[in-house]
Amino acid sequence: MAIRPLHDRVIVKRIEKETQTASGIVIPDTAAEKPEQGEVIAVGPGKRLSDGKIQEMAVKAGDRVLFGKYAGQTVKIDDEEVLVLREDEILAVIEDSASKVRKAA
Questions:
Q1: 4 lies in some domain
Q2: Which CATH number goes with the domain that contains 96?
Q3: Residue 1 counted as domain residue
Q4: Which pLDDT tens digit goes with each residue over 29-77?
């Protein structure tokens, strides 16, 4: 997929949730809620400020992020569904313990 978001836009691929409960009950696609976390695929250059400077993006490709249930716009590219969000619609970046260890070193 070749897509380049503009300004402060972020392209996110949803991370699918488990379709089976811990007790073994299978949840059909029609009853399952869309996941509210995903992996950043691409980011724009940043938001242009009133003085003409560009504010650098806080997320980067490969980050795992949380976003609101109704955030962004879903689009289909190459038969793959992705979400186009503004950076301010992203609530948090999910960091695993391995990345924290690397940053501390």
A1: no
A2: 2.30.33.40
A3: no
A4: 554 556 688 999 999 998 888 998 989 988 999 999 999 888 889 998 8
Which amino acid would we find at residue 74?
T
Token look-up 């949840």 returns 27
Q: Provide the token pair at 40.
A: 């950043």
Given a cut of 70, whether residue 91 has pLDDT beyond it is yes
Q: pTM of the entire structure? A: 0.72
Query: Pick from 89, 19, 81, 13: which is nearest to 47 by CA?
Result: 89
What letter does residue 26 receive in the DSSP assignment? B
Q: Residues 29, 56: contact at Cβ < 8 Å?
A: no
2 inside domain: no
Query: Taking 70 as the threshold, does the pLDDT of residue 99 lie above it?
Result: no
In a domain? residue 54: yes
- Residue 10 CB: number of other CB atoms within 10 A? 28
Residue range(s) defining the domain that contains residue 47: 9-104
